[in-house]
Specification:
36% helix; alpha+beta; 1 helix; 3-stranded antiparallel β-sheet; 5 strands
């Protein structure tokens, strides 16, 4: 017959190895989630004010932003103070074009 101490030692060994496996699983699982969370945090924005050569603000100017890698296009209109915003952009290169009747188009 086995002594109670021998049984306890084997049970403890099984418990330690299952705990180690669980810890390893949790470590690997969280290691996979961290890059996903980090990737979601890398967003950029472009903001500015459309002005003429004298520094006066230009309201209602049309701004077109093109991601040069994907050709994805976004269009905004400057507000009454000439302010525009492009939010939640991927880190990439962009081409910005500004148009307004009576003014020269700028890229």
């Amino acid at each position: 017959m086995h002594s109670p101490q021998g049984f306890q030692a084997r049970t403890s060994q099984k418990f330690c190895s299952s705990t180690a496996l669980m810890a390893l699983f949790l470590f690997l699982f969280t290691s996979l989630l961290i890059p996903l969370a980090a990737h979601a945090q890398y967003r950029a924005s472009i903001q500015g004010v459309v002005t003429d050569s004298q520094g006066g603000v230009i309201p209602a100017a049309q701004l077109t932003l093109i991601n040069t890698a994907t050709n994805e296009k976004q269009v905004r209109t400057s507000n009454g103070e000439g302010v525009y915003n492009f939010n939640a952009l991927p880190a990439a290169r962009f081409k910005l074009t500004v148009e307004k009747d009576g003014f020269q188009t700028k890229t």
